[in-house]
């Protein structure tokens, strides 16, 4: 869907680059959310996102769940547009799962563990339960 892993290296296709670019643009539209680390995998992504307030609404769509919803909607629409143009392959049912998994990082040890997990995810791709 978004690329492939070859010799433990992530190679994004055009759809993966689109997802990467849209996710990277978050700080420009949502100043309360900082992308600290992320990786787009062949069929999902992982990220460490820093929220600069207590998680309550600071204006239109500032919460993490609203950002994720808008991100998924935008990237799905763009993907469909490219499918219609014949530039991306069709997908089965949906690009993203309905919900998302979140975890509040409570200390530096957890932060380092999650950072390393994201950093080494391509190396462990074949062990992933969603491996394609």
Spatial sequence of strands, sheet with the most strands: 1-2
Largest sheet: 2 strands, antiparallel
Q: Can you count the beta strands?
A: 4
Query: What is the alpha-carbon Rg in Å?
Result: 15 Å
**Per the principal axes of the C-alpha atoms, what is the gross shape?**
globular
Distance linking N and C termini: 9 Å
**How do the SSEs run, as a string of H and E?**
EEHHEEHH
CATH class: Alpha Beta
State which percent range the strand residues make up: 15-25%
Number of domains: 1
Spans of at least 5 consecutive residues with low confidence: none
> Helix amount, in percent?
25-40%
Please state the structural category: alpha+beta
The name of the CATH topology is Alpha-Beta Plaits
- Total number of helices: 4
- Mean pLDDT rating: 87
Q: Identify the CATH architecture.
A: 2-Layer Sandwich
